[in-house]
Amino acid sequence: MTQSNPIRVLVADDSFFMRKLIATILEGAPDITVVGQAKDGEEAINLAMELNPDVITMDFNMPKLNGAEATEKIIGSTNHPPIIIMVSAYTIHGADSTLDSLRAGAVDFITKPSGELSLDINKVGIELITKIRTLFHEKPRVHPRKSESKPKSTENLNISSNFRPKIVIIGSSTGGPPVVEDIVSKLSPNFSASLIIAQHMPGSFTPNFAKRLNDRSPIDISEGKEGMEVQPGKGIVAPGSTHTHLQKILTTTKIFLSLEPVQNTLYPSIDVIMSSAASIFGPETLGIVLTGMGNDGLLGSKFIKASGGITIAQDLGEAVLASMPRALIETKTADHIMTADQIAYFINKVTTNG
Predict the structure, then answer these.
(1) 173 is catalytic
(2) What are the structural domains of the chain?
(3) Which member of 54, 200, 276, 307 is catalytic?
(4) pTM for this model (two decimals)
(5) pLDDT digits (tens, 9 = 90+) for 231-265
(6) Annotation marks residue 296 as catalytic
(7) pLDDT for 27-58, tens place per residue?
């Protein structure tokens, strides 16, 4: 990326202070230029059409149209939509709003500066610039999500009649929350395994994510807590901002939370959860890696395969960001490559008697 060809960013926020703050942060990067600022959802749509930015940073709580509504209209109005990053309040309402916006087509999010403002601005600024650069170069698959989609064919899925997992691990990162929602909403009420969901997400967001999944799924799903028992027929969302380890205590399996290993800087680590699950459940482990940047889930999937379990990578043509599932495919670690619809179908076939 050269100075003469910068990443073009539109900043949308109803707060004059926040617009100026974000613009100042971004203009400090030599490869980014702010092409416009919008004070409400309607202006964001109009400027997006007029300026054709590469990236939009989008607030949620804005007059006229909120961030999710503006996101849906922008993405649905062009064949080459911009990458939209939500700039979210670090609150319960902010978490819900962000998840709505991700379903509307936003790719990722960051939290607004808070607390010790001078320190937080620097941290958030680095995170935002890094996300903009990475997403711009990764070229995520940006598209509006449909509430009703035609299921993909399941006729050619090779499902072993002998495979009956006791635990299912779903790992995802950027672009993952709506996909996870779609999968758990299609689970059978007779789902008999234990489900662990590892979504890279701050700790302030995972309680709302768990509640959202629970509201959409026929099985009970809750956020994991220290010492919680892993139970058949129920789901656990690994808490953000920490790692989740599974340990067998006599006849039960429980989760324990820790910042170790420190080299795993993405929380919760998919590798950590998958590896500990494979060490307990062995060939009765099903590991699934969805959309995301990097390769978290690769090492854990290798542990699952080595233990005799089965691994699935999301279809690259469907993933918002293909890096994580591609890591499994390129290393021949994935036993199957499937769309989200096929993954839900597969889970139901191997965890129910139907």
Answers:
(1) yes
(2) 7-138 (3.40.50.2300), 167-351 (3.40.50.180)
(3) 200
(4) 0.91
(5) 999 999 999 999 999 999 999 999 999 988 877 78
(6) yes
(7) 999 999 999 999 999 999 999 999 999 999 99
